[in-house]
């Protein structure tokens, strides 16, 4: 649940910051008439992302066990690729995010309402699609539906509330540090998702070594214990881990985390939402 709360909070706050920048631009440019088109684009993006998540979940139920494991493994790898790309993209592009979004919206306003809606949908849809795929993979990894989904929804709700407070200047947060810390956390979470994806592919007999265990601490860390559930929910930790899972975890987390933390603590700054007076 905590891992999905983290992904929901981070992705949701990214999307909220994006929407805040776009709204602030339209307000300051005295183009409030384009706000309905912007919100239409946001709603459309959210609807598509929810539909993708539901579609993946429903499709998996119609498959055989082997096909489900194959889909789960592939989905986990895709989710890890999304998250890895996202954290590095935000670290690199955060400095120019506000300027790029403002220029895109300025061009869209000149074209028309449809262009505004498409610009908003694409900006929000990227974050939403990553969240949808990652949460779906996490649901398979934990073997539970309610807790991962509840964590993601709670994270998104907190992100929306936090984004609104930032826009209203009710709170101040160092977004640069926030995205840096959560990015490092997501790299560790993604490593667990990758390891579980490898396990799925082993169960599907695509990869070997299903019975070759690197360690088995099931007696010391029972899967049903509170700490076992916590480790599973946060890190996708499996008490019985194969050599291939352990190798995949290490092969991912060590180089990726080292690259991400390079030159820390000076990640690229992320522009906070531009404050604007909104008519009441």
- Point out poorly predicted stretches: 264-268
The SSE order reads HHHHHHHEHEH
Strand order of the largest sheet: 1-2
The tally of beta strands, per DSSP, is 2
Estimated share of beta-strand residues? under 5%
CA-CA gap between termini: 37 Å
For the CA atoms, what is the radius of gyration? 20 Å
From the spread of the alpha carbons, the general shape counts as elongated
Q: Give helix % range.
A: over 70%
Largest sheet: 2 strands, antiparallel
Structural class: mainly alpha
- Average pLDDT across residues? 80
Supply database-style keywords.
mainly alpha; elongated; 280 residues; 9 helices; two-stranded antiparallel ribbon
Question: Describe it for me?
Answer:
By secondary structure, the protein is mainly alpha-helical. Helices cover 74% and strands 2% of the residues. It is built from 9 helices and 2 strands. It has a two-stranded antiparallel ribbon. Helix 2 (35-61) runs parallel beside helix 5 (113-142). The longest helix has 30 residues, at 113-142. The protein is elongated and about 65 Å long.
């Amino acid at each position: 649940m905590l891992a999905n709360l983290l992904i929901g909070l981070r992705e949701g706050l990214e999307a909220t910051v994006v929407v805040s920048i776009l709204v602030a631009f339209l307000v300051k440019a005295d183009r409030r008439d384009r706000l309905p088109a912007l919100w239409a684009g946001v709603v459309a993006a959210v609807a598509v992302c929810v539909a993708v998540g539901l579609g993946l979940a429903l499709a998996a139920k119609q498959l055989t066990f082997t096909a489900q494991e194959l889909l789960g493994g592939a989905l986990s790898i895709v989710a890890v690729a999304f998250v890895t790309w996202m954290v590095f993209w935000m670290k690199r592009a955060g400095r120019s995010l506000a300027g790029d979004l403002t220029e895109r919206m300025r061009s869209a306003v000149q074209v028309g309402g449809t262009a505004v809606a498409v610009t908003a949908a694409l900006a929000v849809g990227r974050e939403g699609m990553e969240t949808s795929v990652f949460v779906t993979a996490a649901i398979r990894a934990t073997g539970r539906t309610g807790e991962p989904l509840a964590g993601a929804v709670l994270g998104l709700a907190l992100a929306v509330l936090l984004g609104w407070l930032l826009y209203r200047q009710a709170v101040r947060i160092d977004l640069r540090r926030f995205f840096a810390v959560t990015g490092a956390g997501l790299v560790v979470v993604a490593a667990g998702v990758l390891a579980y994806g490898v396990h799925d592919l082993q169960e599907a007999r695509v990869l070997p070594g299903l019975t070759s265990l690197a360690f088995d601490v099931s007696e010391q860390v029972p899967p049903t214990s509170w700490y076992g559930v916590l480790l599973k929910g946060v890190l996708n930790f499996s008490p019985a881990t194969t050599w291939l899972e352990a190798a995949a975890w290490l092969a991912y987390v060590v180089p990726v985390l080292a690259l991400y933390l390079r030159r820390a603590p000076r990640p690229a700054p992320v522009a906070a939402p531009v404050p604007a007076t909104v008519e009441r």
